[in-house]
Amino acid sequence: MKTTLKLFLLALLTSCVSVKKHNAKHEILIAPKKLKQDVDFSYKKLQKLHPNLYWYISKDSLDYKFDSLKNSIRQPLKPNEFYRKLAPVIAQIKEGHLRLVPLEKRLTRKEIKNLEKQKGLLSRYNFVLDGNRIFVKDNAEKIPNMNVGTEILKIKDIPVKDLLESYRPFVNSDGENQTFQKYILARRWPSYFTAEHGILDSVKIEAQYRNEIKTFYLKREKITKTEKKKVENANKKITKSEKGKTKDYNVITKSFNRDLQFPVKDSTVAYMKIKTFSGTYSRKFYRESFETLKKSPAKYLILDIRDNLGGSLAEINNLYSYLVSEKFQFINDIEITSPSAMYQANYFSEFSWFTKPFAVAGYPFYLMGTALSIKKESDRFYLRNNGIFGLKKPKENTYKGKIYVLINGSSFSAASILPSKLKHEKRAFLVGEETGGANDGTVAGRYSTKKLPNSKLYLPIGLMLIQPSIEFTHTKKGVIPDHEIIPTLQEVLAKKDIQLDWVMEKIKEDSSQ
């Protein structure tokens, strides 16, 4: 017993020392020479691993930006000060998946346990951006002074305009797209603020609601045992009672990731909302949903992928097979820079400590499978489109009615590839806003995360050029809707869904005719 206690105390002390040592590195100044080495290291790794680095920016232009950055570094900088210089250059590559990651403060076990017992600070809200202004979009817990529609003017006495202008260079989209930034910055600015100012117990806010300006403090609140038990019971009740969706409930958002509804009495219209293509339990959902659709009188299907940031390529490939009646090739062969690139993918980091031994055992098979899948054509390397991405037959329960797809600037990655393919095949009518992801594909899939040798910043690099099997537009833009509808700020805050309303009215007109 004494030995066990000593070992526990030793592990605890070692952990605390390790955390302290790690966090101390954040304050160490790095010499200009070493920072320039990190710039060169970043560019060389991008050139070696990124399969379409000069898609949206010329080599001469990118060379100039990296050279200019090196010339601007004349004084020692802390790691995250260096991040603020390098991250905007990485963003100029204009690949929405590609971004530099700042150093984060490491927490002790005690600090982690304390945070687990507390509610969030800024993370408890959803925000919407209008230029350089931030508004509260959702306040599910009805916290005072943060009503829906409240405009945040200052945080820690810093004007919101200044915060957003300092964070905006860190975000980018695919190509020349301009719709994605406002959505992704609305999601990320709280994390940028936390990275800059640390995890705070409270923060001073100046806000305006209905022409009244208030100054107050947002505070972290402790989660009481009663609250915790109530939430756990509610989640259990929901997940047990919903047939076909049991494994698809998100306890954080308190909603289902995928959902199928029939919004009109005669069930002639079906509405399918997909919040993310997570891949988890998706096959069962689509199998059951399209069985239901086949038995229903639904002549119209509304597929809502707004605010869907993408995810599993296998899931959208499977979903597409329920929407078409003929054999199809969903994506082209995936391009990579070289055979060696795939051997640098983040293989082991994708497994938990519990499953690591299985990952080790399976690694030789991963290497063998990768080697066998690589082919060379005209000095370019590809991964063969076999298995789930080969020529596919449609499902037996394929939906044959008319399809409307709702998209917006926060439809990204896989949620852009799917509507791109549907539009090209003239299988669906797209309504809403230009997608945040590119029409002609993206660089993502598997990643190789590189640690910069001196600043210790992380740079995850996408290894796979994934493109839908279509005739490319070469516009460097997102998927353009067949009918564009962009809601105003007032409509968003008032929860008016004018895009869905337009589709429902259009269906009503078609049905009456």
From TrEMBL:
Signal peptide (from-to): none
Family annotation (Pfam families): Peptidase_S41
Residue ranges of the Tail specific protease domain? 244-486
Which CDD domains is this protein grouped with? Peptidase_S41
Q: Which domain of life is it from?
A: Bacteria
Listed name of the protein: S41 family peptidase
